[in-house]
Amino acid sequence: MGLFDKLFGKKAEDEQPEIKSVNSGHEEDWDFYFSNVDDIKGSFYLDLGLSKIAPVRDKPNLVWISVTMNSSREDGLSSNEEYDILIAIEDRLRDFILQNHRSVFAGRLTTDGRRDFYFYLDDSTVYDKCISEAMVAFPSYNYDIGLKEDPEWRFFLDFMYPNLGQVRCIYNRRVIDNLEKNGDQLTKARPVNHWIYFKSENDRTNFLAKIEHLKFDIINEDEKSASGDFPFKLQISRIDNVDIESVDEYVLALWEFANECNGDYDGWETSVERE
Question: What is the value of pTM for the model shown?
Fold first, then answer.
């Protein structure tokens, strides 16, 4: 796989399996995001929590298993029809590899009619035999395997892990999911509050000038707040829709303007609106 441009988007395959804990000494944080991989739409599902401990020095070997899907969608992603068996393949691969190697399951990529699973191992001896024994249960599926040394975990950190904008979109979706879980239909516009912190008062003033055309109301403009390197606080608000497309649009705009002004966009919140 080569270089790629990452894009934002809401995943079509929303339901995700529960990932069993692997004794890797970190708090797991599984989530997904869309990306273009070699100009083809792809979906990453990975343990974001690994970024806090990577690289894991005693697991320098990257192993991947690339399974060709039998009933992929036209865009190359997985179909509902094939969902259960793909999860069964993932579970069996994970169980076999974790039982036979001290390993970490980093995640998977679904793209171009295939699903690729990525593991970091300590000792890769007879890893291929382990995978073959797992895949014998799925005789109708073709697969390829690979191994390379990656002691710095560059594949995970540089290729699998989302960029900062994509991380922000993941957080947006989590807030929206929480609204829906509390009975919000996401159809009603409502006040949405945002918090941004700045290193200097001048940075905050420049930010307000940049967003003037966006018509936000200033709720709180503290002279100083206890926020470490970003002591100048700003709270703004606007009546907005809270569907994922709308939220991503205005949050990413504020985040980018904040970056241009040496600011730290700290997030947004709103009320639950039930019909």
Answer: 0.84
